[in-house]
Design brief:
- The chain has 312 residues and is of the alpha+beta class.
- It folds into two domains: 230 residues, no CATH class; 68 residues, no CATH class.
- Helix content is 16%, strand content 25%.
- It has five helices and 15 strands.
- The strands form four sheets. Strands 9, 10, 11, 12 and 13 form a five-stranded antiparallel sheet that branches. Strands 1-2-3-4 form a four-stranded antiparallel sheet, with no helix packed on it. Strands 5-6-7-8 form a four-stranded antiparallel sheet.
- A hairpin with a 5-residue loop joins strand 10 and strand 11.
- Helix 4 packs parallel to helix 5.
- 30% of the residues are buried.
């Protein structure tokens, strides 16, 4: 373990630090017919496994997901470990204080490291650190890289040296012609999701003026490496816009550090109302999700409702 931390394979749950709990592996010592291929287990993110859980009072092995955990509050969404049908566990690992990721493949039986691969992935601008989440398509692993590119490695269960490939949803030749431009403006910002045909999907964010006229949206790369993308909202054309109306990012609320004001919530609501008016006939539903500074919550909710109803 890094940083001088080492933990027994049978240690009690309550004695482990928070940054290690994300990778407690409670998997069978023998291979299973099923696996866990993506965030939430499948493309629908149902998080339902066909394999029954084992008793949770013991730990087979542990490994860190963060080699440089911050002190104090840990405002990080750690990526989901994956499991192949042959019981290889793939763990995404944060390696630096603010940047740096790699993926590790370990034996599900005892945690032995089979191989590891570093990525050049760069984080988008963020408050909470978004998750670095790879995905499995059969025995091929996809994991995010810089500039909106995706790396892949075949033969995930093998510890033998294996070549790593790279894909770009906008064309790898375009990326290789100007990598620094793409690295500075295009960022994968969601987990990678894979469907039953081996096609992968992920969200990406652009910052400033990205090459090729790219705008923040959703990317698709099929099993043959062919990529497409759509701007996230206008091409989706929602038939109904649903707000999960959380107000805990307000400057007066200590739950987040985005420093939103009442006017910011009005602006966001107006932007989404415009989408609803354009594509959904004005159909909107809003559900109060959170907010802990009661005065700010009340004021912001009023602004939100006024804009939704056309009173502001």
């Amino acid at each position: 373990m890094s940083g001088g931390h080492h933990f027994s394979a049978r240690r009690a749950l309550g004695s482990l630090p928070a940054w290690l709990l994300g990778v407690l592996v409670l998997v069978p010592a023998t291979a299973t017919a099923a696996g866990w291929s993506t965030y939430g287990g499948n493309a629908q993110h149902t998080a339902v496994s066909p394999v029954g859980a084992q008793p949770l009072d013991g730990i087979r092995w542990t490994t860190p997901v963060d080699l440089a955990p911050p002190s104090g509050s840990i405002l990080i969404h750690y990526g989901s470990p994956l499991v192949t049908a042959a019981n290889t566990v793939v763990v995404p690992v944060k390696t630096g204080n603010t940047e740096g990721y790699r993926v590790e493949a370990r034996s599900g039986a005892d945690g032995t490291l089979l191989w590891s691969q570093t990525s050049d992935y760069l984080l988008p601008a963020h408050n909470w650190t978004p998750s670095y989440s790879p995905a499995l398509a059969g025995n091929r692993l996809y994991f995010p890289g810089a500039g909106g590119t995706v790396y892949f490695r075949d033969n995930v269960d093998s510890g033998a040296p294996t070549a790593v490939g790279q894909l770009a949803f906008y064309g790898l030749s375009n990326y290789l012609a100007a990598p620094s431009s793409f690295n500075a403006t295009v960022f994968i910002d969601t987990p990678i999701t894979v469907d039953s045909a081996g096609t992968i999907y992920f969200g990406f964010r652009t910052n400033g003026t990205a090459p090729l006229g790219l705008q923040s949206g959703i990317a698709r790369i099929d099993a043959n490496g062919n990529g497409t993308w759509i701007p996230a909202m206008n091409e989706f054309r929602p038939e109904l816009v649903i707000f999960s109306a959380g107000f805990d990012a307000h400057a007066e609320d200590d739950m987040a550090m985005l420093r939103f004001t009442d006017a910011d919530y009005a602006w966001v609501t107006g932007e989404l109302k415009a989408v609803a008016d354009r594509h959904a006939g004005g159909r909107m539903v809003s559900m109060l999700e959170g907010g802990y500074a009661l005065s700010a919550l009340g004021r912001s909710a009023v602004q939100h409702i006024k804009v939704m109803s056309g009173l502001s």
